[in-house]
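Q: Given only this backbone (91 positions), what sequence would you predict?
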């Protein structure tokens, strides 16, 4: 099981780093938001599942944290995009 946890953590870190680096080289704000929203959510979920496999003592707390991250990530991206569009519309 420690090998599976390590693979999940490395996969999550790969998603986090690749999404962040790709986001740095994009010009439009909404494209940056798209890259950060998807890669960060998937990367953090993989890392959290890897941590859960390492210490499965508190299953309900790990599950709640993963569900909250999956729900809050896209909602915050939508809120940021809506604020961006509202700012552009007011000019």
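A: Predicted residues:
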């Amino acid at each position: 099981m420690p090998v599976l946890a390590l693979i999940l953590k490395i996969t999550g870190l790969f998603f986090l780093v690749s999404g962040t680096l790709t986001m740095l080289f994009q010009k439009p704000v909404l494209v940056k938001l798209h890259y950060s929203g998807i890669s960060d959510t998937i990367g953090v979920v993989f890392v959290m599942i890897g941590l859960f496999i390492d210490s499965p003592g508190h299953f309900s707390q790990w599950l709640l944290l993963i569900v909250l991250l999956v729900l809050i990530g896209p909602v915050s991206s939508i809120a940021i995009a809506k604020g961006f569009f509202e700012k552009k519309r007011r000019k």
